[in-house]
Protein 1
Amino acid sequence: QVQLIESGGGLVQAGGSLRLSCAASGHTFSSYAFGWFRQAPGKEREFVAAIDWSGSNTFYADSVKGRFTISRDNAKNTVYLQMNSLRYEDTAGYYCAAVRDSTWYSQVSGYDYWGQGTQVTVSS
């Protein structure tokens, strides 16, 4: 099984930056694709970004394209989400997820493993 632990969330002013980390256990880390999702109160969990097993292909929701960057460091078994130019509407709980042998990167149902989430709050 894969265990995911997010960190790096917090309170930040609009226009600021945060870097989220997702530390993963498991000896098959390099063969997994990873995604970041977020969920605000009363809303569905929505796709934010994903990175495939090789790290060469990334995918972003239109709402974060150009502002967020997903990356991975296989040696550290860690996936990152660099968030710049943060807006109030980015406020949500952020969750990392992992899957092996799937290309449904933007769908919640496409992932097998989930972290507990880390809260990001953007103030005006």
Protein 2
Amino acid sequence: QVQLVESGGGSVQAGGSLRLSCAASGYTDSSRCMGWFRQAPGSEREGVAAISTGGGVTYYRGSVKGRFTISQDNAKNTLYLQMNSLKPEDTGMYYCAAARSWCGLAADTYNYWGQGTQVTVSS
């Protein structure tokens, strides 16, 4: 099993930045892909960014391209999401996730999930 713990969330004004971290433990070699998802109240969970653990290929939802950067430190088993130029619509609970077989932004392809960290962007 893979355990994921997010950190780095908080409240920030529009235009500000946050860096989220996800510490992974357990059988991390089983994960081909790591991703960040978010969910606003009353909305479905949506993929934000993902990265293949082996090759570092990245995927981003269109609304965050140019503003967010996903990265990983495999030696530390840590995933990051650098979020710049934050907008109120970026507000939500952000989840770290790991997928065994696929890589992308589809939530139903992920097998392990963290508990989430709240990001609130005020206008």
Protein 3
Amino acid sequence: QVQLVESGGGLVQAGGSLRLSCAASRSISMFNGMGWYRQAPGQQRELVATIRSGSITNYAASAQGRFTIYTDNADDTLYLQMNNLKTEDTAVYYCNTERILDGTFVQDYWGRGTQVTVSS
């Protein structure tokens, strides 16, 4: 089993920044892809950003231009740098891993989440 542990969430004012971390129990270079998702109260879980094939990134429209997803293979950690935070970003943020199956990316493992709260 792969263990993923998120950290770095907290309470910030609108316009501020946070960096989320996702520490993995094995070398992240062995994953075909990794991603960040979030779920706000009363809402469905939604994709925030993914990084695949080592360097290909994809962002939700709401995150594009403000968030950056990247990995550090030296410490087996996935990061999400969040700048210019808005109250709409308030949610529990989850990291996950992906593998390629039949030519497409499928989700494998999930962390337990970290709370991000943005105040006005």
Protein 4
Amino acid sequence: QVQLVESGGGLVQAGGSLRLSCVASESTYSFLGWYRQAPGAQRELVAGFSRDGSTRYADSVKGRFSISRSNAKNTVYLQMNSLKPEDTALYYCKLNLGPLKPNYWGPGTHVTVSS
């Protein structure tokens, strides 16, 4: 069955960095990346890969976050630099296997950025 294992969340001061990892049980996909949900807000895309390898970033993280992957390890990474308090959220790894297929979500990993 599909599994997503997340790691790397934690507490960091503003201006610091964290690196999130998501290990997927599938090697091919239509989307693999990260969403986040802050308190009182809806879940939003942070960054991710589509099937052709193209990337997509939220405007709020462009220039600060970078997504990468290891195909050999079925792992996607989110390098988060210059973190701001408004980046505080639960970060979820998301996988989709193709059109009209359901989304798969990791359990979420906390990212807290203090001022």
